[in-house]
Task: structure prediction
Amino acid sequence: MTFHDAVVYQIYPKSFRDSDGDGVGDLRGIIDKVPYIASLGVDYVWFNPFYPSPGHDNGYDISDYCAVDPAMGTMEDFDELAATLGAHGISPMLDMVLNHVSTEHEWFRRALAGEQRYRDYFYIRPARADGAAPTHLPTNWVSKFGGPAWAPFGPVDDDGRPLSGEYYLHLFDPTQADLDWHNPEVRARAAEVVNFWRAHGVRAFRFDVINLIGKTEPLADAPAGTDDRRVYTDGPLVHDYLHELNRASFGQDPDSVTVGEMSSTSIEACVGYTAPERQELAMVFNFHHLKVDYENGEKWTLMAPDIPELKRLLNDWTLGLQAGGGWNALFWNNHDQPRALNRFGDAGRHRYESATMLATAIHLLRGTPYVYMGEEIGMTDPLYTSIEDYVDVEARNAFHALVDAGRPPEEAFAIVHSKARDNARTPMQWDDGEHAGFSDVEPWLRPTNQAEINVAAEEAGGRILPYYKRLIALRKELPVISEGLYEPWELDDPDVLGYLRTHAPGGGEPGARLLVLCSFRDHDTEVRVPADLAAGRVLITNYPDRRPESYAERPLGPTVRLAPYEALALIVTSPDTL
Result:
């Protein structure tokens, strides 16, 4: 098996299963549910951070890379979890957050104490005297969480300026200090972190915002009046540093699998990160397709998704990485995104159809699919009615900012409810009990619709879970899915995502041609069908009662009518198809 025919399941540990009755998920809770994970047929499980952390950014502010947060369990628990997964042929994938550390990490505390060795681990710069940057900050960069990207280094005076006259860089929260990868010792320590977990048998890693590690010196202002992130994103040194990290750590394992989260990135850069001959990473995440419901590029807005733009982005990225020999990580959902079912489908009248259509769209595409916990049973955004239902500081801050800007509270809440990260962080719904089978006590974040949507119901007679299992199995069965080429089909159609996959293995084996059609509309729509596939076999559809197994007896006409949110995949396998 290569990662081309693999599927990754993502677990947000805090919300998967609580084993000790404190309302928060933990490693032993995950161990309890390994048989369920194995039943999906997945190959890797990506765990969001479970390391010691003050929790200012949901564990992405790490205070110790080489330990387990006591609230999550022990190192012995992790080793047992890895072994239990391994017994089912599943590998853990750990989150490596190496662009920044918590300001409570030993390295930053020692820098504050004046140790020059550790000062050199961070971007610590003097205030500017020329007044070009706000309040004399070293640059005019804006934090991704809002506000300046520089914070006072050490104690401040009555005006809030550092007594030291220095600031440190934090592209995220002020409690997350960016590491200076120009320092060879920082790069060596990063490799040590990866190697620590390799010694615990880990062979798969996800690297958080890793394309930010190659900031170009000297640090330069963004153009005046802009938040142009290109000044610190995808710098040429990122490639050098990733290659060095590869050679010093995970690249020593022939079975390693890596994925990089790429912030504000480009196709060209991601081809370089993932082309095998570059020896950097195996695959990359990008987020452009999940911003097609951002009005004027602003997250905190209400806007119907732009489906033609969604199609264009998926097509451009698939073709671009294919042409350059790169590889994409495919996903709709993760811990930082509201549920795709609510964004791109109909979570009420057409929940089954929407969920299975979205799954089909990415699982048959070129790349490696990721399934976020609960996605496989059609979990939706929670039915919250008040901002007090949300825990995430980003959601609460956004609500108050919208109200302060003059939005009525009802409108502000509707906007936040559509985009909040907590929408994906509600506990996994195992059954229809009061706490969704997640815990025996009130969870840290409240579930709302477990009576209708839960694992037990799906296992007993649901339709979404079996559909996901079939898609996961198909990727392993058919090289046309795992290795085939991609080309768009009817790219200008405003309603239907269509594409073709082709595979010609040679050696006398038959070639295959696969057509995938996915309707993003709640009404019937027609789309053209290639003549050679009009008599094809139905590989999978979420409307099986409407479709014969094969159209060979009565081929489709030049078009096919798709029902609301229908997914239909037709395949022809023959030496003559290519």
